[in-house]
Specification:
It contains eleven helices and two strands, in the order H-H-H-H-E-E-H-H-H-H-H-H-H. The chain is mainly α. The chain has two domains: 89 residues; 135 residues, Orthogonal Bundle (Endonuclease III, domain 1), CATH 1.10.340. It has a two-stranded antiparallel sheet with strand order 1-2. A hairpin with a 5-residue loop joins strand 1 and strand 2. The longest helix has 18 residues. It is globular and about 55 Å long.
């Protein structure tokens, strides 16, 4: 019975997600700094809750450290990021309340971002050029994994969704995995999804689910994430 209710909710949510599709960004219209900001956000999101990742990326952007053309050497750039992230960040709750928090693993976050900037821009490339060179959505995901430090299949897929590059990839986070266990009896651990071949195998299974709903993979993926997140928060599951 629970899975039937969850499926009805996902189907209804798919309609809302599709209706809001026009509000998505178009990566062709984004500046390189905006693309790097989105990459940083997804890097940080793999290390902390998403709200903290947003606050962290926003702070670095506000102080001018989201730098596609960084004139600082690698070590100095990394040190400046660490210094900025050593200060508490203001977090605004949904009810408008505020609290202060420091991001965890600031040294690791700084290393991942600084190394990404050095690897891409230090070699005369850009995120835009990587996307233009990719021949498919899966190809874009693979090249991002190879060039953006901290990106696994999930982070690369999330980035591509957020910048409006494609709607045919799944962001297989814990909420979606919990749905697959509920609906398909699949018991999966997130750590196994770091291997691209296994990730794509599970993604193909979820694509079958999307076909049953009659919507794109990206649409059903997001609708499932929203539905399962609320269901668990409300202790329905």
């Amino acid at each position: 019975m629970k899975v039937d209710i969850i499926n009805r909710t996902i189907r209804a949510m798919c309609g809302e997600v599709k209706a809001q599709g026009s509000a998505l960004q178009d990566w062709h219209l984004l500046t390189e700094e905006e693309l790097l900001y989105e990459a940083a956000l997804c890097i940080f999101g793999s290390q902390m809750v998403f709200e903290m990742a947003v606050a962290t990326a926003d702070r670095l952007r506000d102080v001018g450290l989201i730098l596609p053309q960084c004139r600082l050497d690698h070590g100095e750039y990394e040190s400046r990021i660490i210094a900025v992230l050593s200060e508490p960040l203001v977090m605004v709750g949904k009810d408008g309340s505020t609290r202060w928090a420091r991001p965890r693993l600031k040294n690791r976050l700084a290393s991942l971002l600084a190394t990404t900037v050095a690897e891409i821009y230090g070699k005369g490339r850009s995120i835009r050029s990587l996307l233009f060179a990719a021949e498919s959505a899966k190809g874009a995901r693979e090249v991002l994994i190879q060039n953006i430090w901290g990106f696994g299949p999930k982070q690369a897929s999330l980035f591509l969704r957020r910048v409006g590059c494609c709607a045919d990839l799944a962001v297989l986070d814990v909420h979606v995995l919990d749905y697959l266990q509920l609906a398909r009896g699949l018991s999966l651990t997130p750590s196994r999804l770091g291997r691209l071949s296994f990730y794509e195998e599970i993604e193909d299974t979820f694509r079958e689910v999307a076909d049953e709903f009659g919507y794109s993979l990206g649409c059903v993926d997001l609708a499932t994430w929203l539905t399962m997140r609320v269901a668990k928060r409300e202790a329905y599951l």
